[in-house]
Structure formats: structure tokens, C-alpha cells
Amino acid sequence: QVQLQQSGPGLVKPSQTLSLTCAISGDSVFSNTAGWNWIRQSPSRGLEWLGRTYYRSKWYHEYAVSVNSRITINPDTSKNQFSLQLNSVTPEDTAVYFCARDVSMRFDFWGQGTLVAVSS
Amino acid sequence: EIVLTQSPGTLSLSPGERATLSCRASQSVSSSYLAWYQRKPGQAPRLLIYGTSNRATGIPDRFSGSGSGTDFTLTISRLEPEDFAVYYCQQHGVLSREVTFGPGTKVEIK
User: Fold this and answer.
1) Is the CB of B44 less than 8 angstroms away from the CB of A47?
2) Which of A8, A98, A109, B44 is in the most buried spot, having the most CB atoms within 10 Å?
3) Whole-angstrom Cα distance, residue A49 to residue B100?
4) Whole-angstrom distance, CA of residue B75 vs CA of residue A10
């Protein structure tokens, strides 16, 4: 059974960088069939896919246009986990953030969610 | 970007009744990449249906999906108490490579 365990701070100051980590058990970040995603949900924006990283003989990254200039999703192969960095945050980035595994772009396993507030 | 619209916003039904939820796309969606999720308060979304009509592992057969092109439907044949939740559709654009979700339909106890 795949499990995803999220960690990271719940409060970030405006203009700073939001950083979250998702530890994978029951699968490998090197999987040739899975992708590793970050998704967020807020009352104003609903469920919003942010991006993914996946391995198909080499690493690929895909990001949503809405955050493309501010986001980085990276694998950490030594710890079998992946991370989210979102730069220059504003209060609009306040949301519950989820990591999720996809297989053929359906999200079958999710992390527990992390509420991140952007506030001074 | 493909925009997904769900209707109704809220569905008030009694246990045992049939629920029919609609998801409409702003342009044609590949049937292979249309999925439905259930979300309960304090929990992560749960995959119910993928590829328009395939039930995910462990999903009871009272849940079914159908549709094509721009119109898709999730049907719950007989509502159980644990089915009262918010349901989201989701698509993945084959060309755009972007993922979008609908705004959700809340199924509440009448």
C-alpha cells in the first residue's frame, strides 16, 4: 500500500518561499509508471494542480501555467521523497496543500494535506 | 485551459435515493483522462472513477461513470450514509499537459 507523508511549516511570510516535502512509502520516486504531484485547495481557487515530477529514464517536470514562474518540484532520491518550493508567496497562496501520486494522470494516493497560511 | 463545470452545486437527497452528478467541459476531453473524486471534511480526496467509467480499487459498484466529449456523469445508484460528501471531476489535457478540476458538487442529506 502506497503512503505519502507530508511535512513542512504551516505559516509562511509574504514574499518568502513555501517549502513542503512528501515522503513516499510503498513505491519509489524512480517509478516508471507514476508521477509525483502537488495539488492545493482553497475556497477561492478550488482544487488546483500545481505540477509534477516523474522519471522515465530521466527526470521530467511539468508545471501549471498559473505558478510556472515561481514553482520547483524536485525528487530527493536518497530519501525517496519529493518536494515543493513556491517562491514569492502572497496571501493568495494560502491553501491546503496535498502531495499525490498519479498513474496515467489519475491521482490514486494522496498525502494527508498541510494547511499553509501566508501571513506576516 | 479546459474549464470543468459541475452541476448541480448542491444535491439534497435521502439515503437510498439515486444521485446523478454532471461534469461539463469547455472543450472535448479524452475519455481516458476523466476522473471523479470524493472528498469528506478533513480528508484528502479519494479516487472513485478513472477513464470515465472504471471504478478505482475498492470502490463499490453503486458508483458508476459515463459520458464522452464534453459531458460526463457520475451516478450513485443508491446513496449510503457514507456517500454524503463533495464530488469533483478532473481532466488531464493530452496536448496541454495541464490538469483541471471542477468546482465540486455537494451531496447532502435531505
Assistant:
1) no
2) A98
3) 7
4) 37
| Residue A52 CB partners (closer than 8 Å, separation 6+) | A35, A36, A37, A38, A61, A62, A73, A102
List chain B residues with CB under 8 Å of A106: 33, 35, 47, 50-51, 56, 90
Task: For residues B66 and B71, give the distance between their C-alpha atoms in angstroms, rounded to a whole number.
Answer: 9
Number of A/B CB contacts below 8 angstroms equals 50
Measured in Å, how far apart are chain B's first and last C-alpha atoms? 35
Strand partners of residue A70: none
Local confidence pLDDT in tens for the 120 residues of chain A: 999 999 999 999 999 999 999 999 999 999 999 999 999 999 999 999 999 999 999 999 999 999 999 999 999 999 999 999 999 999 999 999 999 999 999 999 999 999 999 999
